[in-house]
Amino acid sequence: MPAPNFDVIASLSKRRGFVFPSSEIYGGMAGFWDYGPLGVELRNNVKAAWWRHMVHLRDDVVGLDAAIIMNPRVWEASGHVAGFSDPMSDCRSCKLRFRTDDLKGPPSEIACPNCGQRGTLTEPRQFNLMFATHVGPVEDSASVAYLRPETAQAMFAQFENVATSMRRKLPFGIAQIGRSFRNEITPGNFIFRLREFEQMEMEFFVHPRDEDEWFAHWVEARHRWWTDVLGIAPERLRLRPHDADELSHYSKQTTDIEYEFPIGWSELEGVADRTDFDLRAHAAASGKKLEVFDEKAGEHVVPFVIEPAMGVDRAVLTVLVDGYAEEQLAKETRVVLRIRPDLAPVKAAVLPLLRNRPELVERARRLTADLKQQVTAMYDDTASIGKLYRRQDEIGTPYCVTVDPESLDDGAATIRDRDTMTQERVSMELVPQRIAELVEGRAQWEGIPREPAGAGAP
Length: 458
Ligand code: GAP
Description:
The chain is α+β, with helices and mostly antiparallel strands. It has 13 helices and 23 strands. It has a 7-stranded mixed beta sheet with strand order 3-9-10-16-13-12-11. A 5-stranded mixed beta sheet has the order 20-19-21-22-23, sandwiched between helices. Strand 22 and strand 23 form a beta hairpin. Helix 10 crosses helix 13. Residues 150, 152, 182, 184, 193-194, 197, 199, 201, 267-270, 309-311, 313-314 line the site of glycyl-adenosine-5'-phosphate.
């Protein structure tokens, strides 16, 4: 069973150092969160898994890391200045603001969802979601610039530079991971809807005649990434094609990948067929030709774009929610994060069975140092072994290594598997390599099955 609600995950995240409310000592800030020591590792692992599959393992996609602030004309050409907005209604009484689409009826007829007063909600007004700032010393309308609301536009603005410098022919893609900012009216549900978040987007440029084929390819490939690479349960994922009336202004067809969160089915990623909307818009606004020569047809074409776009934070949330499990053992409930070993913040924890034996502690610390050469590892001797196991289970550490008095004689340690709690005795010299192989899926677990341990037992 995944996590029953977001509160359980938010509480675990704070207690164990995954995610903290931003600037919490000052009361926090809605829509902004900080990733703690374990969160930053998990997040980096999710991003690395995307980059590997999207860029490194493919011949037809290259990367980009563009500036967050771009020439504001980019956002005029893309349609964001005129149209990147949500309808909103304000309550004249309590002053709160609501997305009109979230209200349970027309604002003129319903009571304010916060203060309950009737007739206080204003008619819907469009509210632009871009954060504006000023560049340079003078704050006037000529110095206005925007924090990017999506990473995608940089791929269109740099289309020509990337295609030329990398000698690309169709089809090819440009991928980017980076921060985006949206002044969401109703941020919330922990890290699901944020005002500062990170996106992983890829713009795949194809010949217009190949549009449908590539759209189908990317919907299928992206769905497979969520199941096979992130390890998300297939029964809690679904594909949902957009109805015509919900398509973005640039999209001809979009299919969302959704996850069944405790709040219901919600979007993780969208695969959109953006046609030639963006390249034509930027070509018209900049006066530069944004096209490629198609050798087959012997003519210049403006490519169509298929875009898989996802949020890093939603992926982190999905991994946490989907991996969360509570198991009833003989004497206690075990909380365990069953996340893929390659995503886990800590791959191996070295736990000495006795902390008052200096030579044992010294050996365990040496093993930790050796392990760190191969994987992320930590040493912990601050509690009883049973407690130490539970702590590691809760943060998803796939392997715990115990060093016991016998280790000093036989030079071996015990590796314990998080999910089965079975154990395997391995020569300490071979432990780092063994764990690296297990994490990378190059080795099979050969632990001896044993009864699940009760409270306090290894
Ligand atoms: N370039 C297309 C684009 O930005 P989008 O559907 O607005 O499309 C893509 O965003 C993905 O970015 C979403 O599927 C979601 O995972 C993530 N995302 C969008 N807004 C977000 C927000 N306010 N907080 C967290 N993630 C968000």
